[in-house]
Amino acid sequence: MYQLQVEDMTCGHCVSAVTRAVQAVDAAAKVEVDLASKTVRIDSATELAPLKAAIVDAGFPVASAN
Questions:
Q1: pTM confidence score
Q2: CA quadruple 5, 29, 46, 14: dihedral positive or negative?
Q3: Angle between helices 48-57 and 12-25 (to 10 degrees)
């Protein structure tokens, strides 16, 4: 389970875009987005780096990850 602080998410479209980006890397990933706190929780067996890169490539800067 990873938790990322993701900037620039403001609406449902952002949630969908982030979710699609993560699931393009790992189709089985479970993604939870909280717009209020700008956090994304990802349950995936995939390494963090490609998941993080997919979110950044989708246009959403990742401020921190753990």
A1: 0.93
A2: negative
A3: 140
